[in-house]
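Researcher: Predict the fold of AMP-dependent synthetase/ligase domain-containing protein.
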Amino acid sequence: MPSRWSRNADQYGSLVAVRDPHQDGSPEMTFRHLYDTMQSFAAGFHELGVAKHDKVALFSENSSRWLVADGAIMACGAAGVVRGASAPAEELLYIAKHSGAVGLVVQDGAALGKLLAAGQAHERAQEPNPLRALRFVVLLWGEAEPAHVSSLTCPLLSYNDVLRRGEASLKAGSFSPAEVSPDDLATLVYTSGTTGHPKGVMLTHGNLTYQVRNLSYFLAVQPGDRVLSLLPPWHIYERTCSYFVLSRGGQQVYTNIRRLRDDLTAFTPDHFVCVPLVLDTLHARVRQRLAAGPRHRAAIATALLAAGAAYHALPPADRGTSDGLVATAAGLARRWAQILGAAVLAALLTPLHWLASKLVYGKIREALGIRKTVVSGGGSLAAHLDDFYEALGLPVLNGWGLTETSPVLACRRSDPPEQNIRGSVGVPTPGTQLRVVDPETLDPLPEGRQGLVLANGPGVMAGYFLDEEATARAFRAGDGWFDTGDLGWVAPTGVTGSRCAGHLVLTGRAKDTIVLSSGKNVEPQPIEDAVAASGLIKHVVLVGQDKRELGALVWPDEDALSATPENSLSPAELEDRLLDEVARLNSSRPDYHHFEHVAHITVVRTPLSVDDGTLTRTMKPRRPEIMKRHAATAEALLARLRG
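Model: Structure tokens for AMP-dependent synthetase/ligase domain-containing protein follow.
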């Protein structure tokens, strides 16, 4: 990766690489300035003792200075250990200790103060304080406070302190970038684990450069194209997209969720990289603005939007293309029946769609500010969002991947447009192999059959740091095949009229991890274990895949209820009482995150048992069987959750 920043500077030197309008002191940097600053910062790290193969913790939110620190760490041949500054202090201390970080780069004084307080709590409990092992601490923003200096046993420096040290080192000729190979570790990205401790995903320089080289297969970025950067940089999806955009001479503008609406119109990005939740929020905002206008205009606009959505819901053959997905799922006879039936609708909807494009879509698109393309990842894309943005003429490139795959495994394409197949996550990244297998036997399945999706290729991680057991589980299929934990099927070849052979359709998750629409991963087990400690609750199963929030199916302890005042409550009152209990126990966990809040529950009175397969022999709920037997109840609960 370090050589790419040098190449960028040589190729795009005077073009603006990054703009950071909401931070003081770093409004914008050209590609040459960015590279020179990275080199100075790297030389400063070198003066602080950072050497090849070291680990440096980088706990901060997105900014141009994060990018400088990240590039500087790699230029030393070290690996950045990344996480957001807003993560729980205990989690950050664990990551710093587990990774063996020699230094810490942290967002600001407030974030450092949180870590110092947690470290001091360790010492009062006569436990090791991970901060004592650090050789240095650097604040990306702000200056060191005396209280922070006195609480540390290592030097505390500001961003500018490190730059000044590095500039002096470069003038003296005492620093040169480390030589790194594709197999060298580039970064450790910690992700949630089923044990409650996060796991360190080891991504190499080869993993990252593979993504940078090949994302152009899906997204065409030209020099000077502007991209808004909204997502956290420790999210590998945002990070590799950022590397890719800059490698093509694109301009990255940093924003945040509070300023997103204004920045979309102020900077009018050519491309927008986000998660489905953001697209849903923008869609809802359009609906609200329509509703707030004159009633007759709102009614017309809403009707035209509905017509556009119906038009895009037609079988693609009626719009001049054929995707073949319906043929795979329902058979050719049903496919042709749908096409014939939809032909009548097409004749009615096509002129309405044309009228909507003239009267409504242009104004909405102008208000959104996005010029060319939307890239969506980190969760499945709801059909109504696909309809909405496609109607506006904004292609949504929906992709799929994991932290462990650096991340993009597959994505939809907009060139040619007929390859942007709605309902799919597109085709594999060049060089990546996907295999659909039986989840139990791991035997390969034919095209069109649903199974567990395995991945192999240059983007797949080296393994989990210091966790051979978890690594072995992830690669249980052997020969470098990574178990993605996702279920899906591949559209078959040889279907007449189909243009989507090889496109992947995901249908669910084989493992228990719940991925919210925000892209956050939730491991249910720690939450369920905490809630099960209640004297009123016997079993609990979380739901919430692709929703903004969590819900829970709750089985009360009938024996305990019969002996308490809760036994006389109405069903609605009991649900409220148990929801309070779930909230209390969940939020009291030491590693609780706000996005793990359980918003709704459904009380289930049908008992679970070993005999019907809903309980294991150790009396633990068996999630797949429960979701199968209580599908209607679970679907009703999911419908109550925000999408």
